[in-house]
Amino acid sequence: MGNCLEIPKIGVVKAVLHRPIEGQIKTVTISKTPTDKYFASVLCEVDGDADQPKGDKIVGIDLGLKDFAIVHDGEQVTKHSNPKHLKRHEKNLARKQKKFARKVKGSNSTNKYKKLVAKVHERVLNSRQDFLHKLSRKLVDESKVIVVENLNVKGMVRNRKLSKSISDVGWGMFVNFLDYKLKAKDGQLVKIGRFFPSSKTCSSCGHVLDELTLDIREWDCPNCKTHHDRDGNAALNIRKEGIRILSNDGGNPVIAVPRRSKTNKPKGGKASVDDAGSLHCTVLSQCR
Ligand SMILES: [Zn+2]
Asked: Contact 39/219 with Cβ under 8 angstroms?
């Protein structure tokens, strides 16, 4: 693993590599951030799929605010919380943005603050992306099928009840990461319907409550008396619903295979699997 990157027409530049570059480089996209940092996104083609982990779990994920992701694999529940340093960066960002909003437009201090806010913003984005990449990699390595809720609508409903959280942005990004990583190993992402009552349904007997307010973290089913942890129960219901959808599609969920593209062309920035089974992956490299 080196610390420089050779770019056609430009030459060799110093770079911080976030992971080793493997295979044949197809395209390199250079971008510049508001804080004058340069990023190179490297698209590579790698032969074969020998390195793909064979995890074959089917997991349901409930995406929350207190914990970022609650994962149920049919036997046990695992909660993944937002990393602490991310929360610290987010608080810092909110403070700087507030200060920036009070500045008079066009003054010297506005420009200074603009850059400062952009800098903190970038740090938040970087550490969030890092967290989401690691978590999605771990889950995809262990699983064949991952079931999530359709996020757009759920996010809006939650926003009305709770103050706008930066996590909202993270959910969409996380689902994207899961999707392309699963496709690279012939796995599948299943999105379930927006009106599915994942929290209000008893995962033991199927009884649906009339209401379950957000402050209730644990409850007992009035029908079968099972005691539920709110989030674990929701994740288990999401998993069950995903399996139901897959069976209705007429396929065995475990052998469901994503569509393969007909061309060898790597698609900009996203991972795809072509006919020969080659994997195109994006390696993010950063020059400081
Ligand atoms: Zn019940």
From this structure: no
